[in-house]
Prior knowledge:
Layout: E1 2-7, H1 14-31, E2 35-45, E3 48-57, E4 62-69, H2 72-89, H3 91-100, E5 106-115, E6 133-144, H4 146-156, E7 160-165, E8 171-176, E9 182-186
Parallel strand pairs: 1-2, 6-7
Antiparallel strand pairs: 2-3, 3-4, 5-6, 7-8, 8-9
Helix pairs in contact: 1-2
Amino acid sequence: MRYQITGKQIDVGAALQTHVKSELDEIVQKYAGRPTDATIIFSKSGAEFVCETVVHLSTGLTAQAKAHAHEIYAAFDSCATKMEKQLRRYKRRLKDHHKERSQPVEVFGASAYILASETESDETEPETLQPIIVAEMQTKVPSLSVGEAVMQMELAGAPVLVFKNEGNSGVNVVYRRDDGNIGWIDAANA
């Protein structure tokens, strides 16, 4: 597995890198099988250290975890515990989907935009109905089944996931509802 261990304005020493590699190897080999690469980013937020970990699995799915602590090793250990919990929770599903899938998840490119929020009060009329685009980026939309999409959304800790449905080749959305359930928007069946 390839590792990219970096620090944002923090020096990440050899001892911490060795600790991260050994702990993450143990967790990922136990629950996920064949990971391809991992990105671990350490940063500082006030008095706390922040550890963000992203592990890309051979099936094309991604697991993410983030944790805060007053010590850098404790931040990583907390993050590793969250990652282990996610992978343990989805181990059966990861194995089941991996058996059905002979090729990694197919992805295609799409444009993603960040729109400026309204700073004016609700009482004033906007000058134009066109929103101000703050940033334009490229993103990847995976081709997944609905079950895989829900699992990917849960693993990533995201509130919403846009994906290409393998069943009907249409663009679909899964999202976490306020009542705790998962919503699924299937535009092809509208």
